Amino acid sequence: MGNEESVPETRGVTVELLAIVDLGSEIEGMTGRQLRMRKVTIEPGGVFGPVHDHIGRPGLVHILQGTITDHRDGAATDYGPGVGWPEDKKTLHWLENRGTIPAVEISVDIVRKD
Which residue range(s) make up the domain with 86? Predict the structure, then answer.
């Protein structure tokens, strides 16, 4: 992550699983993979860390409420309601809520079956 400050561990984060689709039974070649949708709430001052990647776990994020700061490539980008970002194999990042209200996102990604 370059010269960024030390990244704190996860705190003030709640994750609610909303839905899962078994992709192996839907798409040939996707055995062992699931499409997952979660609601993630980051409280004011909360951090979704540490730095993590999305290799083999592509996804999309959409912000419903508040502002989430996405730290990647040495830059901090704020995303508010109605926008979001892709998470692909090049993504290496961590998130935080610098605001005064809970930030809520919907996250959809493809993951390996547990």
Answer: 11-112
Supply the Cα-derived Rg of the chain in whole angstroms. Answer: 15
- CATH number of the domain within which 43 lies: 2.60.120.10
11 closest CA partner among 107, 95, 84, 93: 95
pLDDT in tens, 8-58: 889 999 999 999 999 999 999 999 999 999 999 999 999 998 899 999 999
What are the backbone angles phi and psi of residue 27, rounded to the nearest 5°?
-135, 125
- DSSP 8-class letter at 23: G
Give the CB-side neighbour count of residue 45, counting CA atoms within 13 A: 0
